[in-house]
Q: What sequence folds into this?
């Protein structure tokens, strides 16, 4: 289990590969890896968005994400989880969040991954502020979880 | 006398024009009373969430000496 909150740009694919190589004890046991990667759009609610600032509550954010990962590991038959979330100044197309769950079978991997990202989005203390062509605004709600 | 650290985040931080304040109340208080003491002219907005020592709590939770109380708007990460 790993949780990282970082102000630094990261490559989700590199991070996934790097973390998977550390799972030596579970090698051969997983048959499914489910991942979610969230990246920054250059538009929202009909406006062009030039950049974003992601504020968080240092300490509470990490604690919440660690507890959330523990809950997922207890609730589903999964082998391990990885959560990386960016904070600070973010540019369009940058990766904001990576969530991954390793499991023996796809059902648990999919469900745990979905649980982690939906709980993160509704409860982890992060706040987005969009920098528009003219001015700034706080994002007040997430997009819906279902289409 | 107790010491309580109060923190504000995001749009609420801008609205109350400060990120944190130390309070020294005389006796036991709830989270709602901490808000009232910290932000005297402003009622606690209904949508505002609160935490004590990095855990979500309700506004009627009791606060102890040395606690960190935080107030913030609905979250928008991910």
A:
């Amino acid at each position: 289990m790993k949780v990282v909150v970082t102000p630094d740009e990261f490559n989700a694919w590199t991070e996934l590969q790097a973390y998977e190589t550390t799972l030596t004890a579970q090698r051969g046991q997983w048959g499914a890896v489910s991942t979610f990667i969230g990246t920054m759009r250059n538009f929202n609610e009909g406006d062009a968005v030039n950049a974003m600032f992601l504020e968080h509550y240092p300490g509470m954010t990490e604690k919440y994400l660690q507890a959330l990962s523990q809950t997922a590991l207890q609730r589903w038959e999964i082998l391990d989880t990885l959560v990386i979330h960016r904070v600070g100044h973010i540019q369009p197309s940058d990766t904001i969040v990576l969530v991954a769950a390793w499991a023996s079978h796809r059902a648990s991997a999919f469900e745990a991954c979905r649980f982690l990202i939906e709980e993160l989005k509704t409860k982890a203390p992060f706040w987005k502020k969009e920098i528009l062509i003219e001015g700034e605004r706080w994002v007040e709600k997430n997009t819906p979880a279902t289409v | 006398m107790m010491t309580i650290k109060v923190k504000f985040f995001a749009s609420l931080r801008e609205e109350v024009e400060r990120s944190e304040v130390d309070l020294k109340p005389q006796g036991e208080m709830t989270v709602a009373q901490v808000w009232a003491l910290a932000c005297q002219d402003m009622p606690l907005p209904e949508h505002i969430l609160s935490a004590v020592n990095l855990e979500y709590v309700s506004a009627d939770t009791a606060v102890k000496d040395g606690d960190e109380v935080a107030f913030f708007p609905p979250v928008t990460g991910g």
In short: The two ends of chain B are 41 Å apart (CA to CA). Chain B has a mean pLDDT of 96. Helices of chain B lie at 10-16, 31-38.
